[in-house]
Amino acid sequence: MSNESTIDPLLISVLGGGQLGMMLAEAGAPLGMHFRFLDPSPQAPTATFGELIVGTLGDTDALVRTAQGSAVVTYEWEGVPATGAASLESAGHLVRPSIRALEVSQDRLSEKNLFRSLGIGVAEFAAVDDRSGLDNAVDAIGLPAVLKTRCGGYDGKGQVVLQDRADVGPAWEALGEAGPLILEAWVPFDRELSIIAVRSVDGDTLCWPLVTNEHRDGILRTSTVTAEGDNTTLRASAEKYVGRLLDELDYVGVLALELFDVGGQLLANEMAPRVHNSGHWTIEGASTSQFENHLRAIAGWPLGPTTLKMPSVMVNCIGSLPEAAAIGAITGAHLHVYGKSLRPGRKVGHVTVVAPDTAQLHERLTALREVLPPDIG
Ligand code: AMP
Fold it and tell me: Using a 6 Å cutoff on CB, does residue 343 contact ligand 1?
C-alpha cells in the first residue's frame, strides 16, 4: 500500500509523455502542480516538463516508480496497458479516470456495445474474427463499410474502406492478421463533431461547446468552434450522450466523444478517456482549458467554467512546422510546438487562432494559411 504520509498532494503522475502530457504540465504549473511522466523515450515531449521515468508502460517497476508518492495517477494515452494501471490501483494509488474507461476505449467492439447499451446512436457494426465472419458481416451490414482493427488503431491506421464485394478479399489480406476486427457501416456524415466533457469527483459534469472537426487520411486536421457551429439541438443530444457515458464509467477527468452528424442525428464513432486533440483550442478559446479542468478533476478540486471566450480554430501541424516568427506576426495566432522529430503523418505541433468574431477569425485564418507550409493542416 502507498504510504499516505509521504504523498505530495501536488505531484501528478502521468502514464505517457507525449504532447498531451506536455500541455497538462503547462496547465498545472501555474496551479503549483508538478509532474512525473512515464514514457519509453528519453526524448519524449515531456522530458523538460517534469521528472521523466524512461520505461515501457507495461513495466511494473517503472510504473511503481512513476506513481510513488504522487496524489493521483492519470494517463495521456489510451494504449496504456490496463493491467499495469490496475496494478497501481490495487497497490493503493488513486488512478483517474477509471480503469474501466481505459479498458472500454481499448476495444472498438466493447466501446460500440457500451454506446448501444446506453442508448447512444451508433452505425451498424459486427465483430469479425475470421474470413467467413467478414463475409457474414458484409451480408448483414452491407457496403460501403469500414473494416477496422478492434485494438490499437489510431489516426486512421488499421482501417480499410470496402466499397464493393471485390474489396472484401484485399481488405482481409490487409488486416486479417492484425488481430480481432470490427466491420462498421460507412456513415455518410454531413460533418464530424466532438464533445469534450469533464466530470469531477463529486459527479459534477461540464461540457465545452461542440467542436466541428475536419479529418484527412484519417488524421484530424482542423477543429473549429464558433457560436454558429454550436447548434443547440445537437449540443443537447451530444451532452446527453456524453453524460450517460461519464456516469456509467464513474468517470473523473476529461473525456472526448467523437460524433458523426448525419442529417441532424448524432452517431458516436469513438471515445477517448483523456484530453483530446479536438480540445486543444480550449487553451486560448475557453474560460478554462481541457488540460486545467482534467487536473482540477483528478485532484478532487472544483471545475472551472467551460464557456467559449472567443471563436477559435485549431490547425494541426502534421509532419512539419511553420516559422514561429511568421505565426507570431498574426494577431490571435498561437503556436504550440511539441518537441518531436519531424516525420510525415506525425502530429508535431498545432496553431490555434482566436478572434473576437467569426469574420475576423476567417481573416486571420487566411493569413495563417499563407504562412503554413502546403503540407500542413
Ligand atoms: P477513427 O479511427 O474511427 O476515429 O476513424 C478515423 C476517421 O475515419 C474518422 O474521423 C472519419 O473521418 C473516418 N471514419 C471512421 N469510421 C467511419 C465510418 N464508419 N463512416 C465514415 N467515416 C468513418
Answer: no
Please state the separation of Cα 171 from the chain's center in Å: 27
Average pLDDT over residues 15-21: 98
Q: Where are the beta strands (DSSP E) in 100-171?
A: 125-128, 145-149, 159-162
End-to-end Cα separation, the chain, in angstroms:
47
pLDDT at position 226 over 50 = yes
- At 59, list the grid cell: 513495466
Q: How confident is the model at residue 376 (pLDDT cuts 50, 70, 90)?
A: low
Domains, the chain: 4-95 (3.40.50.20), 124-185 (3.30.1490.20), 191-371 (3.30.470.20)
CB 171 within 8 A of CB 158: no
Q: Which atom of ligand 1 is nearest to the CA of 145?
A: 19
Give dist(CA 107, CA 86) in Å, integer: 17
Query: How far is the C-alpha of 194 from the C-alpha of 182, rounded, in Å?
Result: 22
Which ligand 1 atom lies nearest to the CA of residue 185?
19
- H/E segment holding residue 206: strand 205-207
Helix, coil or strand: residue 285: helix
Q: Is 184 in the pocket of ligand 1 (CB under 6 A)?
A: yes
Question: What CA–CA distance (Å, rounded) separates 208 from 254?
Answer: 11
Task: Look over the chain and give the mean of its residue pLDDT values, rounded to a whole number.
Answer: 95
| Backbone torsion region of residue 111, taken as left when φ is above 0, otherwise alpha when ψ lies between -120 and 50, otherwise beta | alpha
Q: Is 152 in the pocket of ligand 1 (CB under 6 A)?
A: no
* Residue pLDDT, tens place only, 104-138: 999 999 999 999 999 999 999 999 999 999 999 99
Residues 263-287: tens digit of each pLDDT = 999 999 999 999 999 999 999 999 9
The pairing of beta strand 8-15 with beta strand 70-75: parallel
